[in-house]
Amino acid sequence: MADETTDSEIKIGDYVAAKKFGPLEHDFTGEVTKVYDNSVLVEIRDYDPADKTAVGDMNNRAVVRKSAAKITGNKADEN
Q1: CA max distance for the chain
Q2: CA nearest 30: which of 68, 67, 73, 66?
């Protein structure tokens, strides 16, 4: 339950960093487009060029566990 406050801080529009998984060979960053109970849907924005094919196959999206996503910023930070 202690991690619940950290997990609930992730919201749509936040930028997160995530670890490599599945077909991805490197870590990546992206924008949260949907929040689920224990995970988030991330639109991949920044990734290693070696992962270009894998990112394309995934339609530039990945489902990431909330516990594995680290907030790096949000849309409001860009303005």
Answers
A1: 38
A2: 73
